[in-house]
Structure formats: C-alpha cells, structure tokens
Amino acid sequence: MPDMLVKLYELPELAPLMQVMEDADITVRLGIPPEKHLALEWIRKNFSEAWASEADVAFANKPSTIYLAVDNKMGQLVGFGCFEATCKGFFGPTGVHPDYRGKQIGKALLLACLHGLANLGYGYAVIGGAGPVDFYRKAVGAIEIPDSVPGIYRGILRKSE
Fold first, then answer.
1. Cβ–Cβ < 8 Å for 159, 49
2. pTM over 0.70
3. CATH of 4-153, one of 3.40.630.30, 3.40.50.300, 3.30.200.20, 2.60.40.1180
4. What DSSP designation does 67 have?
5. Which residue ranges make up each domain of the chain?
6. Pair 78, 69: CB distance under 8 Å
7. Helix (H) or strand (E) holding 70
8. CA distance 92 to 156
9. 99 forms bridges with which residues in the sheet?
10. Per residue in 71-128, pLDDT tens?
11. Cβ neighbour number for residue 70 with a 10 Å cutoff
12. Do residues 130 and 93 make contact, with C-beta atoms less than 8 angstroms apart?
C-alpha cells in the first residue's frame, strides 16, 4: 500500500460533516487518558496489535492525537483515527467497525485528524500505507507518493506464526 500526500491548506470544511455525525448521534472527539485502556482493547480486537501500539502513542501525546467515534445511543466506540503517532505529520492508523462503515464516520475521522495536523502548523500530511487509495483521493484530494512501498515500515518487526 503506497503512502499518500494531502494538501492541508485545501481541506474540506470540518463543521458540515460534524453536523452529519451529530444528526446520526455519533460523537467524534479527541480521546482522553481514562479511556485509553478501553480504546486500545477495542482496536486490538477489531484491527491489530500493531494499530493498538500506534494508538497508544497517540494517546500519550499532549493533547492526545487520537480521535474516537462514539455511538451515543449504544454508548460504544465505533471508530478511531490517529495522527502524529508513528511519524510527525502522518495520518493513521484509522478504522471503523464493519457495522458502521458507509455512514461517513471514516471521512469524519480523517478530516478531524487532518485538521488537527493543519492546526499544528503543517502544510502537508502523509497518509502512511494508505489502504483505500480511492477513498483518500476522493475525500481529500490525496495523491500517491511514488516508490513509497514499504516506506517507513521497511524492516519493522513482525510477529512470526
């Protein structure tokens, strides 16, 4: 999966999508330390240990650099998005529970994180190891970075089976 580059100075506005989330009774907000253990457990269960490790770093940043999507009706976590976790100026990882996909939650998390990077003063962001390339292209005009596979993940330790 290639890395992608996003112009943070041409992002879509965040407020209209946050209103869509509010209307759907979904809250997208920064995570705080008392819920870290619950969020990391959920990420491990629904995605991977590696993503939980990256999210752990995002929780440790002050302020945190992990957005959580919470279904207010069910009182449960349904998605997350990180920035400034593995590398400075990087977005990811991010994930939405399969039952909640197709409801713009992923896009809301993406935009919240990218606006967070813009607020830190970055002009551009990197989406590391972008899975759904077409989604990122359409949502925020991201472009593929040539020769970026495996990128920063070259030679990382992996669990052997």
1. yes
2. yes
3. 3.40.630.30
4. E
5. 4-153
6. yes
7. strand 66-71
8. 17
9. none
10. 999 999 999 999 999 999 999 999 999 999 999 999 999 999 999 999 999 999 999 9
11. 20
12. no
